[in-house]
User: Fold this.
Amino acid sequence: MPKSKQELRLQLRATRSSIPRTKGDQAAASLCTNASQLPYFNSANRVALYWAHDDEISTMPLIHSILEQGKECFLPVLLIDPHQKLAFASYTRETPLIKNRYDIPEPELTFSSIIRLVDLDIIFVPLVGFDNSGRRLGRGGGYYDATFAELHKSKTNKWPKLVGLSYDCQQIDEVPADIWDWQLDAVVTESDVFNFRSSTS
Assistant:
């Protein structure tokens, strides 16, 4: 009998949490190098990331690399919204951070500017698991699903690339799909880059 999303989350979180700190640091550095191999990474100017949480692979090497390359960096901010949406606020090393209700640091909006989703070039997203079709098993809150639903309402054909960041061990045979799920353009792990869409622009 196939496992439910919640069963898979519990299994994959346990696997992820067993990774030693030293190995996790090495994996994060390798992931940063691999992310630069994405076909659209060099041309991207506005990049959204997130603050790693709950034993997720660290995004700090990638955040630092993006800032060092002069790209604009944005981090998600939880909105007080009945539809559980995110905004993406500008981030630099000087940006004040505050912790949201999940204890995750996010830019203080007073000191940051919000960018429209369609103006981002790449959005790196967290995940608990992924499969060979580019389906993402998320954290379970539905925030990214609700946020990206707005892209379907936009009148532009220019969408940001949606790229998951993950440890190798988070790849599974099949993520159970719901009608509101969306496909990732790629997933980057510490040892590989999985491109699920052929477009390079």
